[in-house]
Amino acid sequence: MDAPLDHVMMRVADLETSLDWYQTHLNYEEKGRWEADTFTNVYLGPEDAHETGAVLELTSNHDSEPDEMGDGWGHIAVRVPEDELQQRYDELMDGGVEDYRDPESCGNRYAFVTDPDGHEIEIVKRDFGPLYSLDHTMIRVEDVTRAIGYWSRVFEYELSGRWEADTFANYFLRPSDAPQEAMSVELTYNYDGRTYTLGDAWGHLAVQVDDLAGAWDELTTRESAADRSPEECDNLYAFTADDEGHQIELLEEHVTK
């Protein structure tokens, strides 16, 4: 199945505040918008986004705010040039962005900040991709062997990187032919056997497929959860979930086109 990552969705309490934050501090531009009766979706990314680059979807529910961040989702990561980590971090701090972990505390390999809703954003060194383009989205899993197997079996993703630490391990997966500018999914496994809650401040990952109906048939044959079929979604998209409940949207058209 050809299914590169298309976007990651996060729920926000105040859409205009969040839009201003991402447009001001990460210089994102609006790529698309969908107004529904009960919610609004806005898609954001760098002005010079790569054609295969993923975008960020902010969702605002008109009658409610997210009330639980949960810990089953971890963060999004954005790219900065290899020699600009401290400079870009300092610029964000000078602009009033909320610090979470500075470069020094992270061995000058990366840093973390938070957006107005508390979503964590990792700043990673990369020698490719536009400034602040999405590099990966991290989700936490309780059974990493099963989680790797899920992405491999259902979406035919391959392991592209791994980092083993004393108390946890990170595994990065993506389609085998994905360009380096594409977004990866990062699976984080903590060795202490903890469990997680998903909360409602994170929504889903989305993958782009060539044929929604055909991909749905493949997906159900491979025993992925049939949460919302194409027919239930007016044949515009569909939803499945991994074995630990992280929602995954399937859609045919790239949201920025």
TrEMBL record:
Gene3D superfamilies xref list: 2,3-Dihydroxybiphenyl 1,2-Dioxygenase, domain 1
A molecular function GO annotation: lactoylglutathione lyase activity
Domain of life: Archaea
GO cellular component: cytoplasm
One matching Pfam family: Glyoxalase
Name of this chain's protein: Glyoxalase
Segment forming the signal sequence: none
Domain VOC: from-to ranges: 4-126, 133-253
Membrane spanning residue stretches: none
Organism: Halosegnis rubeus
InterPro entries the UniProt entry points to: Glyas_Bleomycin-R_OHBP_Dase, Glyas_Fos-R_dOase_dom, VOC_core
UniProt-listed SUPFAM superfamilies: Glyoxalase/Bleomycin resistance protein/Dihydroxybiphenyl dioxygenase (SSF54593)
One Gene Ontology biological process: methylglyoxal catabolic process to D-lactate via S-lactoyl-glutathione
